[in-house]
Design brief:
The protein is of the alpha/beta class. It has eight helices and seven strands. Bound molecules: nicotinamide-adenine-dinucleotide.
Length: 260
């Protein structure tokens, strides 16, 4: 199906790579105009150039941890797009570490990007989205925001925080803005989990694909990992009119690894 987002004006943070890039591509295919915002200007420029044949896309450099930059992003993206109907707060950092060992700088970075960054973007875009009406905010959480995994206490805290914020904003910004979260599982083809499989392959031998497949068979009810496109499908659905009665949800896209 295409055309489910015709006329929609979307901003995707962290859109230069990984899941964010897949969401930007899917939104373009569905007819939206897209601005990708990313701290990595070179990657954002590359992604926008590669996706320009699909639809109307541009990029804006932005560090989501700095309110001056998120405010400038909101102003400039609204100017380019003529308003903003859809905001995907996807920019994020990974970070494993035992609680006894994780360095303070890593804790600060995770809180700054994964939690404060989402808050600052929500703050910067809220009024424009209230003005637009029929708007949608999607916040990227994680299965780690719902279930415990060793070495993911700080990352999990940021992702649980995103869920709390999403639910509160689903009330505060209603009825003009629907606010939902997505909780991806383990992504096999791009992004931070994929880099994790690669690192394990480098350390332990064996291909990243076979390590990932073994993990999936042991740990995931559907016995497979997810792709960035699976997350993008969920982001299209939540942004579309098909989801018009859905707000305050935290949609699991993880093959059943978390069920609630
Ligand atoms: N990959 C997975 O398996 C997985 C699972 C669950 C949740 N997630 C979440 O999905 C989101 C995307 O992850 P991904 O795997 O695509 O990661 P990724 O590292 O491929 O992409 C993250 C993007 O965010 C950008 N970014 C980082 N810090 C930023 C900042 N301060 N300001 C603006 N942009 C910044 C990066 O430059 C990058 O383009 C993250 O929020 C992540 O926590 C990923």
């Amino acid at each position: 199906m295409t055309g489910r987002m015709t006329g929609r004006r979307a901003v995707v943070t962290g859109g230069a790579s990984g899941i964010g890039r897949a969401i930007a591509a899917a939104y373009l295919r569905e007819g939206a105009a897209v601005v990708i915002a990313d701290i990595d200007a070179a990657a954002a420029d590359r992604a926008a150039a590669e996706l320009s044949s699909v639809g109307t896309i541009s990029w804006i450099g932005c560090d989501v941890t700095k309110s001056a930059e998120t405010q400038a992003l909101a102003t400039e993206s609204a100017r380019r797009l003529g308003g903003v109907d859809v905001l995907v707060n996807n920019a994020g950092l990974s970070g494993r570490g035992l609680i006894t060992e994780i360095p303070e700088e890593r804790i600060d970075a995770l809180l700054a990007v994964n939690l404060k960054g989402v808050i600052l973007c929500a703050q910067a875009f809220a009024q424009a989205m209230l003005d637009a009406g029929d708007a949608v905010m999607i916040n990227m959480s994680s299965q780690a925001g719902k279930r415990g995994w060793a070495e993911l206490s700080v990352y999990g805290a940021t992702k649980a925080g995103v869920l709390g914020m999403s639910r509160a904003l689903a009330v505060e910004l209603a009825p003009a803005v629907r606010v939902n979260a997505i909780c991806p599982g383990y992504i096999s083809d791009v992004g931070m989990a994929w880099r994790g499989w690669q690192a394990r392959s480098d350390n332990e031998g064996g291909s990243a694909a076979s390590i990932a497949e073994h993990f999936a068979q042991e740990n995931i009810p559907l016995q497979r990992l997810q792709s960035a496109a699976d997350i993008a499908n969920a982001a299209v659905f939540l942004a579309s009119a098909e989801a018009r009665e859905i707000t305050g949800a935290a949609l699991n896209v993880g093959g059943g690894v978390v069920m609630d």
